[in-house]
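Progress note, project year one: complex with adenosine-5'-triphosphate.
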Amino acid sequence: METLEFQAEARQLLQLMVHSIYSNKDIFLRELISNASDALDKLRHAALVDGLEADTSDLHIELVVDADARTLTVRDNGIGMTREEVVQLIGTIAKSGTAELLRKLKESGADSRELIGQFGVGFYSTFMVADRVSLVTRKAGTHDATKWESDGTGTYTIDTVVGAEVGTTVTLHLRPADEQDALYDYTDEWKIRQIVKQYSDFIAFPIRMGDSVLNSMKALWARPRSEVSDEEYKEFYRHVSHDWNDPLEIIQMKAEGTFEYEALLFIPSRAPFDLFQRDGRRGLQLYVKRVFIADDSTELMPDYLRFVKGVVDAADLSLNISREILQQDRHIQMIRRRLVKKVLSTVKDLMTNDAEKYATFWREFGRAVKEGLLAGDDNQRAILDIASFATTVGAEPTTLADYVGRMKEGQDAIYFMTGESRAQVENSPHMEAFQAQGYEVLLLTDPVDEIWVDQITEYDGTKLQSIARGAVDLPTDTPAEPEKEQELTPLLTYLTEALGEHVKQVRLTHRLTTSPACLVSDADDMTPTLEKMYRAMGQQVPPVKRILELNPEHPLVTGLGSALADRADDPALKETAELLYGTALLAEGGDLADPARFAKLLADRLARTV
Ligand SMILES: Nc1ncnc2c1ncn2[C@@H]1O[C@H](COP(=O)(O)OP(=O)(O)OP(=O)(O)O)[C@@H](O)[C@H]1O
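Model obtained:
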């Protein structure tokens, strides 16, 4: 026998369990049954697809209570675990981001129940009700079994045993009941029946206690919506999603005819912590005629809808279909297309009928959904229709349709600006004329925004126009004064030369009202934020020079123009040019290439004025 230590994160999580942050302790049984059900699914699948030799004739879960010994045993004849798997799966928390989440959990205190829902604490929840837990498991296709035991503190023991059946048996040595603390007597058969009915009725395998079967085993997705209670849906959602929170929306679908399938999908009410992690949990469960085929089937949902959870039950697929074939299967592709359309149209309905739910949806998942704008399929328009964006008009996000409805007379484009934060974009000099003349501008600050605006140039016939790229002419601009501007031509030539290292062109603009200058990207060039993003991803991108635009009304600009006419060879001119460029960069929140030099130039100049 060996004594091993729990991994640090696992120990922390266990401690939280022992000190029971869940007010509802009954759920430990749901977790154990859920694991058992998964193990049974896996065994059936392995027998079917991988040709594993195993007895799958009577897959079931068995519950045994012993009031005298104060134990509750949950046994399944599913796939089981090897010794390595026990150490790996039970002794550690493999999921990335968990340490981070645990830290948050500690800090937040009150909110911990919601947060912990994201772990799916699974097996460890047994320590809420038991002071000792033992697990004996034998993997199908192997001979020896493994016995694991722990009191949920720092260590566990592990041993090889012989003579066990294939499958897993978990025995809980129950703590004394304490109903005031919602710790019930889990050797009470009635209590067990009630918990199973409440949380695990839909489990597809019989859950037996003595001679009776405790669950109805009805596939929830196959039952008409009117017959299923909200509670049942919620429990099922928890089973498929491992999310503690209630779903935001339930979508049920049924297709008959040449290709039949049923689907029960859920839109969560919260983004999982791993939504933007590459190894995050994603995909739907796939069944064929009620038989579980695969978990995490990413073939059924595009990546940008990776947060959608649920089950698809297809009638006409082969039971032993492999992952590779799934990806190519015409039927699967067709189902996927329909599911996507349905999810998008459901969100659209929320938009019209339940603004609050829609707002929650977009806040939690909008950033992911916008990735769909890059997917190059025919759903671009549908995604734009359900998207909303921060705007200079009010604190609430707006849809593109609403924006278009508010456009000013003569305005022919949807104006937007991308950047790293709302504050940065809102205060950027590019915004001045738009603000002054009352034009609404969308504030796009998600990294993905930088990319899709490059590919999508219009919405419903109205052009999308960045206010920080290319030349912008506002319909209400005051007409230019050609003579005055002509006077500045030598200055433009001079500055283009003097700042050649930093900018590709210097020109006049009407977009500024108070600032002397700003920087804009050429219509086809990469924006500085995008440049930064590529660099952060480790890609080599050559620095892109931008265009310096000057406000012909600003005294600094006109003054510099006259100074150039009077004393073209004054070295101070070049320094002023550099300061002008530097302030334009700072004003938009950019980074100076040589901050020390800028600071010195500025300090010298200030010294001369005090
Ligand atoms: N009865 C069982 N039979 C076979 N493997 C099991 C069994 N119970 C647990 N496991 C394995 O141990 C892993 C960890 O289980 P645990 O309940 O802690 O988390 P989980 O089921 O992966 O996810 P969640 O934490 O969301 O419940 C499972 O993923 C599974 O591989």
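The first strand starts at residue 2 and ends at 5.
The chain has 21 helices and 22 strands.
No further modelling is planned for this target in the current period.
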